[in-house]
Write a structure and sequence with these properties.
The chain is an all-beta fold. It has a four-stranded antiparallel beta sheet, with no helix packed on it.
């Protein structure tokens, strides 16, 4: 059974095995933002973000763990200025990962 375990490649008697590998990690991102003054007292803004990702991680004995996923985020915000001391903000946000 011990013949299945790899020999140490680092000094010491504990945590003495290090696996070195280089595998690609890919990520595609898209981000947009829009700001608009509707009137002198009203502003509208919004944003959208999307991410697609995938990668692999090397494990012992030649195995690889692959991961992938998508992320999405959207938001809209409205600001209204009543006076110099009173401002109203309304924000809607959606996020999924």
């Amino acid at each position: 059974m011990l013949s299945l375990f790899p020999l140490p490649n680092q000094p010491g008697t504990v945590q003495n095995y290090q696996l070195i590998a280089s595998l690609p990690q890919n990520s595609d991102d898209l981000n947009t933002r829009l700001n608009r003054s509707l009137t002198g007292r009203d502003r509208l803004s919004g944003g959208f973000s999307y991410q697609r990702r995938n990668s692999e991680q090397q494990q012992l004995y030649g195995y690889r763990d692959s991961t992938d996923g998508n992320g999405l985020n959207a938001n809209v915000m409205w600001n209204h200025t009543f006076s110099a001391k009173l401002i109203s903000n309304v924000r809607l946000t959606f996020s999924r990962n």
